[in-house]
Amino acid sequence: SSKLLVTNIFNHINNNIFTVILGKFYSGQEVGYFTQANKWNYMGHSLISGTVNSVAQPVLSSLSDERERQQRAFRKMLRFTAFISFPAMLGLSLIAPELIILTITDKWLPSASILQLLCIGGAFIPITNLYSNLVISKGKSDIYMWNTISLGIIQLTTMLLLYPYGCTYHDYSVCIHQYLLAV
Protein backbone atom coordinates (compact mmCIF):
# COMPACT_ATOMS: atom_id res chain seq x y z
CA SER A 1 0.00 0.00 0.00
CA SER A 2 1.08 3.57 -0.55
CA LYS A 3 0.77 4.29 3.17
CA LEU A 4 3.34 1.61 3.96
CA LEU A 5 5.64 3.10 1.34
CA VAL A 6 5.24 6.58 2.88
CA THR A 7 5.93 5.10 6.32
CA ASN A 8 9.13 3.39 5.15
CA ILE A 9 10.32 6.55 3.38
CA PHE A 10 9.60 8.59 6.52
CA ASN A 11 11.56 6.09 8.64
CA HIS A 12 14.60 6.35 6.38
CA ILE A 13 14.47 10.15 6.28
CA ASN A 14 13.96 10.32 10.05
CA ASN A 15 16.91 8.00 10.70
CA ASN A 16 19.17 10.05 8.42
CA ILE A 17 18.08 13.36 9.95
CA PHE A 18 18.59 11.82 13.39
CA THR A 19 22.20 10.96 12.51
CA VAL A 20 22.91 14.41 11.03
CA ILE A 21 21.47 16.19 14.08
CA LEU A 22 23.42 13.90 16.38
CA GLY A 23 26.63 14.83 14.55
CA LYS A 24 25.81 18.53 14.74
CA PHE A 25 25.20 18.68 18.49
CA TYR A 26 27.72 16.24 19.93
CA SER A 27 31.44 15.59 19.56
CA GLY A 28 32.70 13.06 17.06
CA GLN A 29 33.78 10.84 19.92
CA GLU A 30 30.33 10.83 21.54
CA VAL A 31 28.64 10.19 18.20
CA GLY A 32 31.07 7.34 17.53
CA TYR A 33 30.34 5.70 20.86
CA PHE A 34 26.60 6.05 20.34
CA THR A 35 26.82 4.76 16.77
CA GLN A 36 28.78 1.67 17.81
CA ALA A 37 26.38 0.93 20.67
CA ASN A 38 23.35 1.50 18.48
CA LYS A 39 24.80 -0.80 15.80
CA TRP A 40 25.13 -3.70 18.24
CA ASN A 41 21.72 -2.99 19.74
CA TYR A 42 20.22 -2.99 16.24
CA MET A 43 21.85 -6.33 15.43
CA GLY A 44 20.34 -7.82 18.59
CA HIS A 45 16.77 -6.68 18.20
CA SER A 46 16.64 -6.97 14.40
CA LEU A 47 17.60 -10.65 14.56
CA ILE A 48 14.64 -11.28 16.85
CA SER A 49 12.30 -8.98 14.91
CA GLY A 50 13.20 -10.56 11.58
CA THR A 51 12.43 -14.02 12.88
CA VAL A 52 9.12 -12.97 14.40
CA ASN A 53 8.05 -10.84 11.42
CA SER A 54 8.66 -13.64 8.93
CA VAL A 55 6.01 -15.69 10.73
CA ALA A 56 3.70 -13.03 12.19
CA GLN A 57 2.62 -11.16 9.09
CA PRO A 58 1.49 -14.20 7.07
CA VAL A 59 -0.24 -15.82 10.06
CA LEU A 60 -2.01 -12.67 11.23
CA SER A 61 -3.08 -11.79 7.69
CA SER A 62 -4.48 -15.26 7.07
CA LEU A 63 -6.55 -14.98 10.26
CA SER A 64 -7.80 -11.44 9.60
CA ASP A 65 -11.38 -12.67 9.04
CA GLU A 66 -11.42 -14.67 12.27
CA ARG A 67 -11.05 -12.16 15.09
CA GLU A 68 -10.87 -14.59 18.03
CA ARG A 69 -8.35 -16.90 16.36
CA GLN A 70 -6.28 -13.90 15.36
CA GLN A 71 -6.30 -12.63 18.95
CA ARG A 72 -5.24 -16.03 20.30
CA ALA A 73 -2.48 -16.33 17.72
CA PHE A 74 -1.33 -12.78 18.45
CA ARG A 75 -1.20 -13.40 22.20
CA LYS A 76 0.86 -16.55 21.69
CA MET A 77 3.23 -14.66 19.41
CA LEU A 78 3.45 -11.83 21.92
CA ARG A 79 4.37 -14.21 24.74
CA PHE A 80 6.91 -15.97 22.53
CA THR A 81 8.42 -12.68 21.39
CA ALA A 82 8.72 -11.40 24.97
CA PHE A 83 10.13 -14.77 26.07
CA ILE A 84 12.90 -14.45 23.46
CA SER A 85 13.44 -10.69 23.33
CA PHE A 86 13.80 -9.79 26.99
CA PRO A 87 16.32 -12.50 27.95
CA ALA A 88 18.29 -12.04 24.71
CA MET A 89 18.59 -8.28 25.09
CA LEU A 90 19.33 -8.63 28.81
CA GLY A 91 22.08 -11.09 27.89
CA LEU A 92 23.48 -8.67 25.32
CA SER A 93 23.39 -5.95 27.95
CA LEU A 94 25.25 -8.12 30.46
CA ILE A 95 28.04 -9.08 28.06
CA ALA A 96 28.31 -5.62 26.46
CA PRO A 97 31.75 -4.68 27.86
CA GLU A 98 33.31 -8.01 26.90
CA LEU A 99 31.60 -7.98 23.49
CA ILE A 100 32.87 -4.48 22.71
CA ILE A 101 36.44 -5.31 23.77
CA LEU A 102 36.45 -8.62 21.90
CA THR A 103 34.95 -7.33 18.65
CA ILE A 104 36.05 -3.71 18.25
CA THR A 105 38.82 -3.32 20.88
CA ASP A 106 38.92 -1.50 24.19
CA LYS A 107 39.17 1.84 22.38
CA TRP A 108 35.36 1.66 22.10
CA LEU A 109 34.73 0.48 25.68
CA PRO A 110 32.75 3.64 26.63
CA SER A 111 30.12 2.53 24.11
CA ALA A 112 29.42 -0.53 26.29
CA SER A 113 27.51 1.49 28.89
CA ILE A 114 25.47 3.09 26.11
CA LEU A 115 24.79 -0.35 24.64
CA GLN A 116 23.58 -1.57 28.02
CA LEU A 117 21.10 1.29 28.17
CA LEU A 118 19.96 0.85 24.57
CA CYS A 119 19.36 -2.87 25.16
CA ILE A 120 16.62 -1.99 27.63
CA GLY A 121 14.70 -0.12 24.96
CA GLY A 122 15.80 -2.57 22.28
CA ALA A 123 14.03 -5.41 24.07
CA PHE A 124 10.72 -3.71 23.27
CA ILE A 125 11.33 -3.24 19.54
CA PRO A 126 10.37 -6.81 18.49
CA ILE A 127 7.14 -6.36 20.44
CA THR A 128 6.51 -3.04 18.69
CA ASN A 129 7.07 -4.73 15.35
CA LEU A 130 4.63 -7.48 16.27
CA TYR A 131 1.96 -4.90 17.13
CA SER A 132 2.69 -3.16 13.83
CA ASN A 133 2.12 -6.44 12.01
CA LEU A 134 -1.23 -6.82 13.76
CA VAL A 135 -2.33 -3.31 12.78
CA ILE A 136 -1.23 -3.83 9.17
CA SER A 137 -2.90 -7.25 8.96
CA LYS A 138 -6.18 -5.60 9.96
CA GLY A 139 -5.84 -3.25 6.99
CA LYS A 140 -5.17 -0.20 9.16
CA SER A 141 -1.99 0.98 7.48
CA ASP A 142 -3.11 4.59 7.91
CA ILE A 143 -3.00 4.20 11.70
CA TYR A 144 0.45 2.62 11.41
CA MET A 145 1.65 5.47 9.18
CA TRP A 146 0.39 8.29 11.40
CA ASN A 147 1.63 6.59 14.55
CA THR A 148 5.10 6.20 13.03
CA ILE A 149 5.19 9.79 11.81
CA SER A 150 4.00 11.14 15.18
CA LEU A 151 6.55 9.15 17.14
CA GLY A 152 9.33 10.19 14.74
CA ILE A 153 8.45 13.85 15.23
CA ILE A 154 8.34 13.37 18.99
CA GLN A 155 11.76 11.66 18.88
CA LEU A 156 13.34 14.50 16.91
CA THR A 157 11.70 17.14 19.11
CA THR A 158 12.91 15.40 22.26
CA MET A 159 16.40 15.20 20.84
CA LEU A 160 16.41 18.92 20.06
CA LEU A 161 15.13 19.76 23.54
CA LEU A 162 17.63 17.54 25.36
CA TYR A 163 20.81 18.33 23.43
CA PRO A 164 21.93 21.09 25.86
CA TYR A 165 22.03 18.49 28.65
CA GLY A 166 24.50 16.19 26.90
CA CYS A 167 24.68 12.88 25.17
CA THR A 168 23.69 10.84 28.24
CA TYR A 169 20.23 12.41 28.32
CA HIS A 170 19.94 11.71 24.62
CA ASP A 171 20.74 8.03 25.25
CA TYR A 172 18.05 7.85 27.91
CA SER A 173 15.54 9.48 25.57
CA VAL A 174 16.26 6.87 22.88
CA CYS A 175 15.62 4.11 25.41
CA ILE A 176 12.38 5.73 26.58
CA HIS A 177 11.28 6.30 22.97
CA GLN A 178 11.75 2.61 22.18
CA TYR A 179 9.71 1.68 25.24
CA LEU A 180 6.93 4.11 24.30
CA LEU A 181 6.73 2.59 20.83
CA ALA A 182 5.70 -0.70 22.43
CA VAL A 183 3.15 0.91 24.70
Automatic annotation (TrEMBL):
- Name the Pfam families for this protein: Polysacc_synt_3
Q: Which organism is it from?
A: human gut metagenome
Q: Where is this protein found?
A: Cell membrane
Q: Does the keyword Cell membrane belong to this entry?
A: yes
Bilayer disposition of the protein: Multi-pass membrane protein
UniProt similarity note: Belongs to the polysaccharide synthase family.
TM segment ranges: 77-96, 108-131, 143-163
* Record's keyword annotation contains rRNA-binding: no
Instruction: Print the keywords alphabetically.
Output: Cell membrane, Membrane, Transmembrane, Transmembrane helix
Extract one GO cellular component term from the record.
Answer: plasma membrane
Family annotation (InterPro entries): Poly_Biosynth_Transport
Q: Under what name is this protein listed?
A: Polysaccharide biosynthesis protein
